[in-house]
Each structure stands twice: as structure tokens, then as C-alpha cells.
Amino acid sequence: MFSDERSRRVVFVSHCILNSNTRADGHAGVAGVNRRVLELLMQLNIGVAQMPCPELMCLGLDRGDVKGGERPVLLENTRIRAGMKSNRSAEVMDAMIAQVVAQVEQYVEHGFSVLGIIGINRSPSCGVDTTTVGNEEVKGEGVFIERLRTSLEAKGFYLNLAGTKVSQIDEALRSIRAMVEKSEATYAKAAGRALSSEFRDA
What we know:
Blueprint: E1 9-13, H1 15-18, H2 35-43, E2 47-50, H3 54-59, H4 73-84, H5 87-109, E3 113-120, E4 130-133, E5 136-139, H6 143-154, E6 161-164, H7 169-201
Parallel strand pairs: 1-2, 1-3, 3-6
Antiparallel strand pairs: 4-5
Helix pairs in contact: 5-6
């Protein structure tokens, strides 16, 4: 099964990596696609699963304030974070997360390698290494990424993550490469243990 040309290797990415039009007003650093990230994944023959944009679905394209783009980024991120912490936003995110988890389950069940999740550092929702709290960029995860990781781990999926920033693209690419290498090493060890078990049971 699945013996065609596919690589059987997948990463999940924040929506705006492939479509910056969903970014909050004043926050887009590329015109459409983060080409450097996509080119790296193409070079590595890794499939790209685009996650839905939590802020778009919870708060709308204008994030609930048409004047949001007039604020400094960190102030606007803090306002957005508050909106993403509401009960309604939690319900919307949980429905989105359930779909992502279901996709991961399908890939893993059929022997594919899910090599990680790529998010957006500083984002109040999709931050991986850093997010925005109290008008400052701080270490920690965004609201969506934290809920997603918790849901995945509850199902036994401990995926590696990498954060990106357009303004620090070389560092982001190194982080993605490191994530992929770490994940592939984990899969290789698991395959070795499984093979060893087969020999012991033979």
C-alpha cells in the first residue's frame, strides 16, 4: 500500500507560511508564500499539510478591529491574544485541532513519518519558541500551538516543533532542518527496535 512516488514524510505548518494574506493587518512579512521555508521542504521531499488559521477563524481577518494595523505589533498581538483566550475562541480552536489530530492519526496509522509542526514565533496564537504576552515578546507557546500540542500528547503523539520568523529566516531554516533531523532519528530508532523485536520473536 502507498508504494507510489510519495515520500511518506509530512510536516504540518501554520496557515500563513503558505498564505500570508491571513496575517493580522501590518504583520505580513511576505507577499504570499514564505518561499524560503517552502523551498527547503520541497528540497527535502517533505509533504506540507497546511493547518487552518486560528485567528482568522476565531476573530476574523481584521481580528475584530479595523484599526488594529495602526498599533505597534506587540500591542496588537496582546489584544489578539486576549481574544484568543475567550470561551468561544477555545471552542473554535478545539474543533480545528480535532481535525489536525485526526490527520496526524491517519498518517501515523499508515506508516508515514510526521516530522513536526512549523509555527510562527512571536505570534499570540502560533508561536513556538516565543509568543506575545503583556506587550512583550516572551519565551513560550502561542494559545493555539499550546492547545494543539496538549491534544496531540493526550493521544500519544509527541511531535517536534520549529518556530519561524521572516526577519530571522536563516535561523528559522536551521531550526526546521534540526527538527526534521531529530524526528527522522526518532523514527529510525523506533524502526530499529521494531525490527529487533521481530528477530527476537522469530
